[in-house]
Write a structure and sequence with these properties.
Shape: globular
Number of helices: 12
CATH class of the largest domain: Alpha Beta
Strand content: 35-45%
Domain VWFA: 405-579
Protein name: von Willebrand factor type A domain-containing protein
Helix content: 10-25%
Number of strands: 41
CATH architecture of the largest domain: 3-Layer(aba) Sandwich
InterPro entries: VWF_A, vWFA_dom_sf
Radius of gyration: 31 Å
Number of domains: 6
Structural class: alpha+beta
CATH superfamily of the largest domain: von Willebrand factor, type A domain
CATH topology of the largest domain: Rossmann fold
Oligomer: single chain
Distance between the termini: 93 Å
Pfam families: VWA
Organism: Flavobacterium aciduliphilum
Length: 762
């Protein structure tokens, strides 16, 4: 029987080999710091393009064998050490390979730290370039750094530095005839090794007194660099070749619009540092660099930011790189003096971001609070503003509830490397997954210009599969929201829960190459099948209008966040909304009268129920949510009788704990002051700013709609009306956020007037 099993195994291997044209037998041995084999340790390999995943446990010798018949490059994960090495060189035919990996999590974490921007430090230089026979004391250590070239010959008279962020010092060193740079430095200190201007090339940590001897291979590159502040220009050799220290990079830029591309510059920002490599393109859009390896570079142009990323972080040996980049100049950056946004180009900050006050935990499932911006009026008062706040009681995650079915569809385009959005996203996803229940159903899709199914729809289980694939996400490429969204919806359909929670969570930091109208229409088809959509926009360059429409139609949460540090809190909101019991079907009606006439609501969509009643329907709510709306009313010849004509606010909601609808009523009274002189519309500074931002945002929307309709004079009239309104609220406004929006409006008005003049002349 044993012989039959062996023959069958060999036959399977032969079939796989013959169908794929190659077989790579890769042995991976895992040992600890004591050189002992580590048995029963999970080793996972993931193909970097297809995302195929294979996981096995080591045997008693600490070994595991993979028979690889597909793919060109596989990343290796061992417990917490993710992408700790790569399997390369897979080709046609039969081959074998071996990796000996020391499981040293301390070293792994030390070498995988995010780079620190040194601009935040005032680093003091300590010259140790002339140390010949260094001596150490009980509080110091000697560090001997030997630097050799690719041919193993010593690198002589070469500058090498040790940088300590803790001490805020740079110890300057220089190699001698043996290629050794000597240092005497304090103990209990971490040092970054800098070579040839390359920061954090390696590290040395002096944990105790003694002598630390390290050897590095570094091949100097034949090039001249001109450094002005943080910007580096390179004069390259005629023959461009990579070395062990630098990658030969060739970039072909295809510009979609504009003038001769040879006049354009390209900027490569070394992530985690303040260094920017600048290059000038030739007439064909070609440009070359010799870039320090083991780094990532974010590509920027003058008129388009965070276009893509070059990732050389895991390169080893001599490397060359060729890339083609699409350059699509942003008209707002290229021609700011003649740019007016269309509705889908508007990028507006929610006025609620500027309100910091928190309300106490309500005793009821939901609590409504009403507050006039100034409840006192007189005969000269023309307007009144009512602040409507609600707070939903927090709730714990329901561990025993029905499973949920979600698809996480995340942007991994090159721009996600900006502000370390990709790193923050991965951490947030890992936290999110760890809080789900094993029975919950999850799929994971990452998209750039294409969509990749990382994890098909399945129960979370122990979460290892999901966590491996999250860790494997790397930024790069363009943005195609449509493909990722449709793939996510289809995964949900495969495991759809009738009458349960089925939701797609979409995150992006950019504009998709796809048609927004087509994307919205397609999304609604799936919404009609009972699938919700939540949208998260990150940064400052995403399609805010598209995400708003998708989330509104999809009935999920909508979050816009400026900084990557807020991604985790957004996913926590999403988790709470998915797993915690909450009130639903919340409706708020505002009944007004002929003395207090409704004019505008900022913050929520509304509909008119009759001539004197509007209704707000609060969708996408969750435990702990604090919402706010600002209602503007016109006052019709106010007099003392207005005190007996309050607004009547009615709130209804379904309480799942009582299994019934609850109704509550509140009244909002104004006070009559029989005094002369103008009464201020809004008293509190924070409330005043929030209202001003809300009015300006609404003004920009109306201006934009008029612009698209070619009603330039109507757009100008509305700008002037809004600006006059803001000047009344803020007669001596110095707030930077308000001033910025006012200045934007003024710039748009100048261009619109120019458009009118040009039309008249023609």
């Amino acid at each position: 029987m044993k012989k039959t099993i062996v023959l069958f195994f060999l036959l399977l291997n032969f079939i796989g080999f013959s169908q794929s044209n190659f077989l790579r037998v890769q042995t991976i041995k895992v040992i600890n710091n004591q050189q002992e084999p580590m048995a029963n340790i999970p080793v996972t390999i993931i193909e970097t393009l297809s995302k195929q995943r294979v996981s096995k446990n080591t045997n008693t010798k600490g070994e595991v064998v993979f028979n690889i018949t597909t793919g060109n490059e596989w990343a290796v994960n061992i417990l917490e050490m993710k992408n700790c090495c790569y399997i390369y060189g897979i080709d046609k035919g039969y081959s074998t390979g071996k990796n000996l990996i020391t499981y040293d999590i301390e070293h792994y974490k030390r070498t995988h730290r995010a780079k620190i921007d040194r601009k935040q430090f005032n680093l003091i230089q300590i010259d140790q370039t002339k140390l010949i026979d260094p001596q150490h004391e009980s509080t110091t250590a000697i560090v001997k750094l030997k630097v050799v070239k690719d041919d193993d010959n010593p690198l002589k008279n070469f500058y090498v530095n040790l940088t300590s962020y803790k001490l805020q010092k740079i110890f300057l060193g220089k190699t001698n005839e043996q290629g050794i740079a000597n240092f005497v430095v304090p103990i209990n200190t971490e040092f970054e090794v800098d070579i040839d201007g390359i920061e954090s090339f390696d590290y040395v940590d002096t944990k105790k007194s003694g002598i630390y001897e390290l050897q590095f291979t570094y091949q100097p590159t034949d090039l001249k660099e001109i450094v002005i502040n943080d910007t580096i220009s390179q004069i390259l050799p005629k023959e461009l070749k990579g070395t062990s220290s630098r990658v030969a990079v060739k970039i072909k830029v295809n510009k979609l619009s504009g003038n001769d591309i040879s006049k354009e510059l390209i900027y490569l920002q070394m992530l985690g540092t303040n260094k920017i490599y600048k290059g000038k393109m030739d007439k064909d859009g070609r440009v070359s660099f010799l870039l320090p390896n083991k780094n990532k570079y974010l590509i920027n142009f003058k008129y388009q930011k965070e276009v893509d990323v070059l990732n050389f972080s895991h390169l080893r040996g001599i490397s060359n790189s060729e890339s083609t980049i699409i350059y699509n100049p942003d008209p707002k950056l290229e021609f700011p003096e003649r740019f007016v946004p269309t509705p889908d180009q508007l990028f507006l900050k929610d006025f609620r971001e500027f309100i910091s006050k928190q309300y106490p935990e309500p005793t009821d499932p939901i609590e409504l609070k009403l507050k006039w911006a100034n409840d006192s009026i007189n005969a000269l008062s023309k307007e009144a503003v009512l602040e409507l706040r609600f707070k939903i009681r927090t709730a714990n995650i329901d561990l025993k509830g029905d499973p949920i079915n979600i698809s996480l569809v995340v942007d991994k385009s090159g721009s996600m490397e900006g502000d370390d959005r990709i790193g923050a996203l991965k951490k947030s996803l890992l936290q999110f997954i760890s809080k789900l229940r094993s029975k919950d159903i999850v799929s994971l899709i990452a998209y750039d210009h294409e969509a990749t199914l990382l994890v098909p729809s399945q129960p979370v289980g122990d979460g290892k599969y999901l966590k491996d694939m999250i860790e494997d996400i790397e930024a790069g490429g363009g943005t195609n929201i449509y493909n990722g969204m449709v793939m996510g919806y289809n995964q949900i359909l495969k495991k759809q829960i009738p009458k349960g929670t089925n939701r797609l969570v979409l995150l992006t930091d950019g504009y998709g190459a796809d048609d927004p109208l087509v994307t919205i229409k397609k999304s609604k088809e799936y919404n009609d099948k009972g699938i919700e959509l939540s949208a998260i926009g990150v940064g400052q360059f995403y399609n805010q209008a598209l995400l708003s429409q998708l989330a509104t139609t999809g009935g999920g949460l909508l979050n816009f966040i400026g900084s990557s540090k807020n991604i985790a809190s957004v996913f926590q909101k999403e988790l709470t909304s998915l797993l915690s019991p909450c009130v639903s079907d919340v409706k708020i009606e505002v009944e007004y009268n002929d003395k207090i006439i409704f004019k505008q609501l900022y913050g929520y969509p509304f509909k008119k129920v009759n001539n004197n009643t509007i209704q707000l329907e609060l969708n996408a709510i969750y435990p702990g949510l604090q919402g706010i709306g600002l209602l503007k009313f016109d006052l019709n010849n106010p007099d003392k009788t207005i005190e007996k004509a309050p607004l009547i606010i009615k709130m209804t909601y379904f309480d799942p704990n009582q299994s019934k609808y609850i109704e509550k009523k509140e009244k909002a009274f104004l006070k009559w002051l029989p005094k002369e002189g103008k009464i201020e519309l809004i008293l509190e500074a924070e409330q005043k700013k929030a209202y001003a931002i809300a009015v300006l945002n609404q003004g920009l929307k109306v201006m934009s709609e008029n612009f698209v309709a070619n009603n330039y004079s109507g757009a100008i009239e509305h700008i002037e009306k809004v600006q006059n309104n803001i000047k009344e609220i803020y007669p001596n406004a110095s707030d930077l956020d308000v001033k910025k929006l006012m200045d934007e409006m003024s710039q748009y008005a100048i261009y619109l007037k120019r458009k009118i003049n040009n039309t008249l002349q023609n």
